[in-house]
Design goal:
With about 425 residues, the protein is α/β, with parallel strands linked by helices. It has 15 helices and 13 strands. A 7-stranded parallel β-sheet has the order 3-2-1-4-5-6-7, with helices on both faces. The protein has a 6-stranded parallel β-sheet with strand order 10-9-8-11-12-13, sandwiched between helices.
């Protein structure tokens, strides 16, 4: 069976789809990944067939775009910018490349915001499934997306109507663009598109619960986990961890834009106030400092499944992938949120008792971050995070998803 995996976004968005692609390949299926050229090397290094779509974009250009988004406080305005200047930038080229790459595939699994690949698959008549990394946008009577307050089962549906109305101008931009491509053959609603047949939620049901009114075409699989090879740390990092066991870990992934050094200064001042050692991952925003205290170590890429279990707590942006990795490590979180689904995951972590209340990036100060660090290091929160670790480790969704995709294809056969 030839399966296409179509996905967009940052490295954090790619990681789960890379994990699933490898699991499908190991199960004997031919897998073709369709996405931005930025991710080509990572997938091809794992032996996967990768088809690049759209323009070649540099990390500096991505950081500049993120700067512009983070300067906006209105999430609707952020999404409008993301759609026009990222997803639909050179969108016709992306669409035609994706459509050509999809030819000959038996089925496609498409990220819920990959509108162009979704339209291409629909026009080709290829059966498609949706991929969901965060169920925050799924309407339910039992909850509402943050920062809206939960109004209860009878009033929450009205809150969802307000969300749908607020996002309708952004959805219209998508439909107008898809009309230029001969569509729309798909429906974009609340900044995502789903398959009418089957959508797979790749998230921990403990971390991101679903509810009794979940539509029947949505199914919870559990997170897609990438098994990394054994890792040997650089001697400097190994020596640091021996001298400073269980330090704070800091990892903001793709967040921060071009403000990495300024963000690093806030973190360093907070660590000094809290009196805690730390390992700081530079990440794509290049967290760095000219003067580094003896109890702080800056590193580049280090696998999270090796690094995080050695932490006292992890300061992170509450993206889907990093949140899952910290939860599986069994240590508390200190969420600093920037955009998208991050406030949702931060709220869930606080609900579970494994994180303090989150801090918005524009409200981040040395004093409030230091306070959150000390809260995360309390015995109560440490014990709670450790007690949930076994549950999170048991929720790997790779094998379950492979079996569900195989069943989906069998059900399509006459």
């Amino acid at each position: 069976m030839k399966i296409a995996i179509c996905t967009v976004g940052s490295t954090g968005d790619m990681q789960p789809y890379l994990a699933l692609a490898l699991s499908l390949q190991q199960a004997g299926h031919a897998v073709r990944v369709i996405s931005h050229p930025f991710h080509q090397t990572r997938f091809e290094s794992k032996g996967l067939d990768f088809r690049p779509c759209g323009p070649v974009v540099t990390q500096q250009e991505l950081n500049d775009l993120l700067d512009r988004m983070l300067a906006m406080r209105n999430p609707i305005t952020q999404l409008r910018l993301l759609m026009t200047d990222a997803f639909f930038a050179d969108g016709e080229s992306y669409f035609h490349a994706a459509k050509a790459a999809l030819v000959g595939c038996d089925v496609a699994l498409i990220h819920m915001v990959d509108f162009l690949s979704g339209e291409a698959a629909a026009q080709l008549g290829i059966p498609r499934m949706g991929g969901i990394l965060a169920p925050t946008g799924i309407p339910t009577a039992y909850a509402v997306p943050p920062p809206l307050p939960n109004l209860g089962k009878w009033l929450n549906p009205w809150a969802w109507k307000l969300v749908r109305l607020s996002l309708s101008p952004v959805d219209r931009i998508a439909h107008q663009f898809l009309r230029r491509l001969g569509g729309p053959s798909i429906t974009v609603q609340m900044f995502h598109t789903l398959s009418p047949q089957l959508n797979l939620i790749a998230c921990s049901p403990t971390l991101a619960p679903t509810y009794p009114d979940l539509p029947t075409n949505l199914e919870v699989m559990g997170p897609w986990i990438l098994e990394e090879p054994a890792y040997t740390p650089e001697p400097a990092l190994a020596a640091f961890l021996q001298k400073h066991p269980r330090p704070v870990m800091v990892s903001f992934g793709s967040m921060g834009g071009t403000r990495g050094p300024a963000l690093a200064q806030v973190v360093l001042q907070a660590l000094r106030l809290a009196g805690l050692p730390a390992v700081i991952q530079s990440g794509y925003s290049a967290l760095s400092a000219d003067e580094v205290p003896d109890n702080v170590c800056f590193v580049d890429f280090v696998p999270h499944d090796w690094l995080f279990p050695q932490a006292a707590c992890v300061v992170h942006h509450a993206g889907a992938g990093t949140t899952t990795a910290v939860a599986r490590a069994g240590v508390p979180h200190v969420p600093v949120t920037f955009l998208a689904d991050q406030p949702y995951f931060a709220d869930q972590l606080h609900r579970l008792g494994i994180a303090p209340k989150s801090i918005w990036h524009h409200q981040l100060r040395p004093q409030n971050l230091a306070s959150k660090l000390l809260e995360a290091c309390t015995a109560t929160m440490q014990a709670r995070a450790k007690s949930l670790q076994a549950t999170f480790l048991s929720e790997t969704g790779n094998a379950k998803t492979v079996a569900r995709i195989e069943q989906f294809v069998r059900d399509l056969q006459p």
